[in-house]
Write a structure and sequence with these properties.
The chain is α/β, with parallel strands linked by helices. It contains 15 helices and 20 strands. The strands form 4 sheets. An 8-stranded mixed beta sheet has the order 8-9-11-10-14-18-15-16, with helices on both faces. A hairpin with a 5-residue loop joins β12 and β13.
């Protein structure tokens, strides 16, 4: 990952491949943002005019490169758009800083060092800039020929053979200030774990089956002092985990349920995070048509997010107990696969009539939610790439939040907004529950087609222990970016929900969540 430093050095004398500055979109054209005063001075105060001549407007994510002024040790200035100029005496929006830093870092792939002279009014600004550039510098090239031939840092080279930006110095940072140091240390821990989640989502399913995912979790747990328990097919059968076993029945790769437990001696509250981990989803007997299964390696993004969040909580030493449950299975068609019409007896004892084997995520989550409920945590949050209906409702960049408690739903939404993750609160209309009535079992895994994302949430609610506060994050839209990269978001796995979960844990540790 890109190495980070805080620097008080002046931009002209710093040895680097590039100096990154911010440009805002003002009423009369682009304006140079705070932090770049020394650079602007070297252009005789005409940097904004030069950028406008080159076509720059200051629009968010816009990147303009120009030769550095005479006397600078860095050869290039990279001007990145911050969007609309803030009101007088107001700072830049944290997400604007995060996205700008990410866009600049991505544009500097292959560079050894860059100095970021973006607005840093306070320690929190240093944190979001650091987070943005670390996430923006991410690339996944492990399966490219260039990655095999390269060594060291080049081993993570992208498809063009360029390694991520190797080092970044935040100019205007205060290396001896505890708040600044803490801000970039937090950013580094969260970004590294989020990028680990992205790696998992991007890994081809022939290399990441449930057993392999569980092994990754075990290795990380050992490294960070997290207690881990892995239930294999034998243990799942003995325990009566009918949902997870039913989904994994058609695959040659057996399912797993992984429990990760981070405990703090100072904790007063406990959280359980539950993640859907379908390492590949063919749809099972209800087979997905061509054009709908090529990216289904991403159907374990919820489990990846939960895994990353628990490790991040441990690395940050948060004063809250956090348990992560990874419900891992591969959904495949075969002679042993669950059929439409089969009835599964779940870990909770309830029976479920399977009407559609492609509605499998809710089945593995149901078992994991009931297992998490047995520990009686103060709250449970599940994360899943659950429904196409949620994508139709909210698009490809926003995830839905449902909950059995309106105040908790609002608190999770606030945590998402604070983290820079677009999310939207969604209802759980009681009248939709009737559509899942089954003449054969306690409940069916399908209901009304309209409002399918809400129906899935209502199904999950049936498997949350009585009296436990619960929220469900349907990240089907933003978990995997099939378009081009933007801001700090790459093509492919995005790591959606990691930052929200970490922020929820931080707020619970501080006693200020809802």
């Amino acid at each position: 990952m890109t190495a980070l430093t805080l620097s008080t050095a002046a931009a002209p004398g710093l040895r680097a491949d590039a100096i990154v500055i911010g440009v805002a979109k003002g009423a009369g054209g682009p304006s140079v943002a705070p932090g770049a005063e020394a650079v602007d001075k070297a252009y005789d105060g005409r940097l904004a005019a030069v950028l406008e001549t080159l076509g720059a407007s200051g629009a968010e994510g816009e990147v303009t490169k120009l030769p550095a002024p005479s006397g600078f040790k860095a050869p290039v200035v990279v001007a990145v758009g911050l969007g609309a100029e803030p009101e007088k005496d107001a700072g830049f929006d944290p997400e604007a800083l995060r996205r700008a830093a990410g866009a600049a870092a991505r544009a500097l792939a292959g560079a050894k060092k860059a100095a970021f002279a973006l607005p840093l009014a306070e320690a929190a600004d240093a944190g979001v800039v650091a987070e943005g550039l670390l996430l923006g510098a991410y690339s996944f090239g492990a399966y490219k020929a260039s990655a095999k031939e390269a060594k060291g840092a080049k081993a993570k080279a992208d498809g063009n053979g360029k390694a991520p930006l190797a080092e970044a110095a935040l100019l205007g940072g205060k290396p001896r200030d505890k708040a600044y140091k803490a801000a970039i240390e937090r950013a580094a821990a969260v970004a590294e774990e989020l990028n680990r989640a992205r790696d998992l989502v991007n890994t081809p399913p022939n290399d990441l089956d449930p057993e392999a995912f569980a092994a990754v979790a075990q290795a990380a747990a050992k490294e960070h002092g997290i207690k881990v328990q892995v239930l294999d097919e034998k243990a799942l059968t003995k325990g009566g985990y009918g949902g997870i076993l039913g989904v994994g029945a058609g695959s040659a790769s057996g399912p797993r349920l992984v429990k990760l437990s981070y405990t703090s001696p100072k904790a007063k509250k406990s959280l359980a995070f539950v993640g859907k981990g379908i390492t590949y989803d063919s749809g099972g007997i209800s087979l997905k048509p061509a054009g709908h299964n090529e990216t289904m390696k991403c159907d374990m993004a919820g489990a990846a997010a939960v895994f990353a969040a628990v490790v991040a909580a441990a690395r940050l030493g948060l004063e809250v107990n956090v348990t992560g449950w990874l419900a891992l299975a591969e959904n495949m068609p075969s002679g042993s696969a669950t059929r439409p019409g089969d009835v599964l007896r779940m870990y909770s004892g309830k029976t479920v009539e399977v009407l559609n084997t492609d509605a499998e995520g809710r089945l593995v989550l149901a078992d994991a939610l009931w297992a998490a409920s047995q520990d009686k945590p103060d709250a449970i949050i599940d994360v899943a790439t659950l429904t196409g209906a949620m994508m139709l409702a909210l698009g490809s960049r926003t995830y839905g939040i449902m909950a059995n408690d309106d105040a908790f739903r609002s608190a999770v939404h606030e945590a998402a907004e604070e983290s820079g993750e677009p999310a939207w609160p969604m209802p759980l209309p009681e009248h939709l529950r009737k559509g899942m009535d089954s003449p054969t079992a306690d409940i069916a895994n399908m209901g009304e087609r309209m409002g399918g994302g809400l129906v899935a949430g209502l199904f999950l609610q049936e498997f949350v222990g009585e009296g436990i506060t619960w929220a469900h994050l349907d990240i089907a839209g933003p978990a995997f970016n099939e378009g081009g990269p933007f801001g700090y978001t790459p093509k492919g796995g995005t790591g959606t929900a990691v930052r929200t979960l970490v922020r929820v844990a931080e707020r619970v540790a501080l006693g200020d969540l809802g």
